[in-house]
Design a protein that fits this description.
With about 80 residues, the protein is an alpha+beta fold. The protein has two domains: about 30 residues; about 40 residues. Helix content is about 65%, strand content about 15%. It has two helices and two strands. The chain has a two-stranded antiparallel sheet. The radius of gyration is 18 Å and the shape is flat.
Length: about 80
């Protein structure tokens, strides 16, 4: 791999990490994300286990729809 290609890959990875970080910062302000019926939270003495099952399903369906529309438009 050439040095310029490696630099582009690093910039792309950095942009993805930046996007994910901003998404995590804004995620607390989005209503219902992480608080849907079906999201499981188990708390004990000094520990918490959180399994966002319903949220994961909803986000998966939305992402599938968006990517399907993008693929359909690009044809």
């Amino acid at each position: 791999m050439e040095l310029s290609q490696f630099g582009r890959v690093l910039v792309l990875v950095g942009a993805v990490i930046l996007f994910l970080g901003l998404l995590l910062v804004v995620a607390e302000r989005v209503p219902l994300i992480g608080r849907l019926p079906g999201d499981i939270t188990v708390r004990g003495d000094g520990w918490t286990v959180y399994a966002p099952l319903a949220t994961s399903i909803v986000l998966s369906v939305l992402l599938t729809l968006v990517l399907s529309v993008v693929a359909w438009v690009r044809r």
